[in-house]
Each structure stands twice: as C-alpha cells, then as structure tokens.
Amino acid sequence: MGLGFIGSIIVGGLAGWIASMIMKADTGIFANIGLGIIGAVVLNFILGLLDIYAADAWLTQLFVGLAGACLVIWAWRMLRGRS
Fold it and tell me: Where this protein primarily resides, as one coarse class (predicted)?
C-alpha cells in the first residue's frame, strides 16, 4: 500500500533534514525533502537488487530514507570533489 504522497513528503523531509544534520550539509527545506525521497528511492532500489524488502511502514522508510539521503549526499560530494 505504501505511505502515500503526503506521508512520503513528510517522511522524506524528516529523513533529509536528519541526514543534512548528520552529514553537515547546508540545505534548505525543499532540498531536505528531495534528499530524503531520492535517498529512499535509491536505497530501496539497492535493497531490492539484494532481495531485501523494506516494509512500507513510516519508521522503516524513515531509516531507509535517512541512510539513502546520507548515501546521496556522500556520492554528490565525491562527484564534486569535496570531502
């Protein structure tokens, strides 16, 4: 069933905000939401390749979005040459 559109935005925003604090990224609210949602999509895809299914519950997706957003921030910094 999933979280739904509004739930995904809320969880994505929260995950992106926490990730930006952990990674010390200077991002705004819209970037936080984007990072959280993109991070969740990326990490859910990677987990799917490994035959691991992350439940559609909000807490599970918060952790997946958080880890994914940290991964996206890290990858972006590596591509841009910053550490």
Answer: membrane
